[in-house]
Amino acid sequence: MDTTTTNVTPRTAPAFVVVTQMRENYGAHSWDGTGACPQYWKCKGGHDYFVHGAETAEQAAAAAEAVLPCNDYYEEYIIAISPYSEWESRLPEWDEHREHVLSCVIHIERGQA
C-alpha cells in the first residue's frame, strides 16, 4: 500500500474515500493459543483509504475490505464511505493540519489485493 503524499488533482482524485475503525483484542495478549481466545476489544483509531478505480461505493468497499486485517488480535472495519469531493470538503482549513491528514491517507487501487 502506498502511503506517500500526492498532489490530488481532478484527474488523479480517487472516486471514494473509505474510513475505517481499528480495534485491538487486549484479551488475546495473555492467551496461550488453546481454547477460545478471550475477547476484550478496544477501539484504537482508524485510517482513511483513497480508493482509485472504483465506480461505486460497493466497489470501493470491496477494494478496502481486501486489504483490511482481521484476526484474533486485531481488526479493522469500514465505518463510512464518501465520494472524494465530499471527504475533501471536510478537511481542516489550517494548512499544516490539512497536509498532515493528507499525508496519512493510504492509497489503494481497486483490484490491488
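^ that was protein a. below is b, sequence first then the C-alpha cells
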Amino acid sequence: MDIGKRTTLAILGGLGLLGSSSAFAHRRRREAMDPAEMEERIERAIKHIGVEVDATPEQQAKLTEIAKGAARDLAPLRAQGREMRQQGVALFTAPSIDKNAVEQLRVKRMQHADAVSKRITQALTESAEVLNPEQRKKAAARARRWRHLG
C-alpha cells in the first residue's frame, strides 16, 4: 500500500478516532484521487462516523473541515512519495550502486514520513478536541471491531 493510500486511510480512520473509513479501503488505484471525489468521500465517511458516535451536525461539519484540510495538505506529499519510490527503483537497478545517493534518499524518505505523520497527528488532535470523551470512547470501541485493535 503506498503512502497516499495509507495517509488517506489514517486521516479518515483517525478523524473518527479510528472509526470506519471503509469507504476508502476498497480503493486500489495508483493515480491520485480527484479532489472533488476525495471531498465527497470524506463527507460520506464523516457522516457515517458521526452517526456511530452521536456527533452533532456542528461536530460533523468541524470534522469534515479538518479532514478536508488534512487531505489538501497531504496531496502534494503523495506525489513526492511516488517520486521517491521511482528514485529508489532507479538507484537499486542501476549498473552500480551509489551508496551516498541511497543514503540521501533514505534520509529524504524519513523526512517525508515525518511530515506526513505530523500532519496526520495534527488532524487527529484537532478531531479529538471536537468530540467529547464519550464520543471518543464510542469511536475507540468501533475501531476495535473494525480493525481488531486491542
